[in-house]
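Researcher: Please translate sequence to structure tokens.
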Amino acid sequence: MNTITATEYKFQGQKSVYKGKVREVYSLKNDLLVMIATDRLSAFDVVMPKGIPYKGQILNQIATKMMEATKDIVPNWLIDTPDPNVAVGHLCEPFKVEMVIRGYLSGHAAREYKAGRRLICGMPMLEGMKENDKFPDPLITPSTKAENGEHDEDISREEILAQGIVSEADYIQLEKYTHALFQRGTEIAAKQGLILVDTKYEFGKTKDGKIVLIDEIHTPDSSRYFYADGYEELQEKGEPQRQLSKEFVRQWLITNGFQGKEGQAIPEMNDTYINSVSERYIELYEKITGETFIKADVDNIENRIQENVSNYLNQK
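Model: Translation complete:
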């Protein structure tokens, strides 16, 4: 199946290009950004060799819907979506931290807990918790924003302020926005019979100094969801929760001997597995949004994006 895993566009007024693990961001002269969600799959901060059909469209459309649903409480960078894989928004200077917030002892937090640690990013975790138990209150556990394929690293609020990565006034605002978004995301998830377990938010500053939400929000790549139905029963039995996130990819990689560590080889993902991941992402989309996923035309994704973006920019 056709996928888009890399782009080499020359848009009108283009100044520069930044290529992240999954998204490619084109900066234009009129302080606009064109963000393209590719079909690349990243796990353990490593990009997998093959793309996942429709993944970029899914991430972009979920993020768009969630930004629309939260713009009344937190301003965001988004202006328009001229293509299923593309978002256009305001140029921002990103903060060099990701605001991770955790409502439950899951994923990375659970792995830290199993290793005997009771502090994560300077935040205490209670004794006697089981994996996937709910925290008394959500914990903000920031990470540094990795560059050039490096791993994100946990960092505490105190370290962020001491190193001058973010000013105290700005960080207080980031915390406030993070809690507000997580509360709204929790409410949205509950309407779909889901639990928003943990997620991450990224923020930037516009040219006039306003802090806004950027990048993706409440997608299966940036968030972990449980099915609410059966959560309590599974916890009581000590059984794994039914998840909606890309954790299933991480678990498959772990089972096949890969956790992104030095010297480990990425296991082969055959076409059958790739298509099963695509189907899982479509399931995630439909469950998270409550809407039927409509597949975009993928006969020539590169040309489709070029045409849609160019037409949009010509009308500006």
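Researcher: Any highlights?
Model: Residues 168-191 form the longest helix (24 residues).
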